[in-house]
Amino acid sequence: MHIFAAAGALLAGAALLALGVPAQAADPPTAGPLSLDVFYSGVWYEQARTPTRLTRDCEHATTTYGRTHEGEIAVTDACRQGGPDGRERAISGIGRLQDPGQNAVLEVRYRFGPFRPSRTYRVIAHAPDGQWFISAEPGFERIYMFSRPTALPVEEIEAQITQVRAQGYAGEVEILATPGRP
Questions:
Q1: How many CB atoms lie within 10 A of CB 115?
Q2: Which of 44, 45, 101, 160 is 20 to 30 A from residue 84's alpha carbon, by CA?
């Protein structure tokens, strides 16, 4: 989920290695053009991600997109610590598209206390009907899988993981608990 990837931006490169974040060779391909109204609006449910210490035990995760008065993309990432009724953890930021017209690369500047870490996410695959997408950070360091339905079947998530591996991702992936799937 994006929330803890943003917090991870505060760590130095050596600390990221200590967390076990895999370094990948090349940037993943982007999948565009994407509709702003489909992909950057409403609630998306996180189905799977690259695990990190910052995301440990935080499931039932969502990313919510909206538009600001200036036309930028408002982003709120949230999850529940320890289960569906656990304490909510959330972080918000403002996103700017880095590839207007394709709309597949979004840089988000988060508000994390006095810090303003930023992360760049690339949509690398998506459903033709806009019901799911997979994003990755540059260098294929981390991946995130989202859907409109709250819980995709595990078999469908595993097929998406296979697709990401075929694109060159070699790191870990964890399937998350979501409402409707423990």
A1: 11
A2: 160
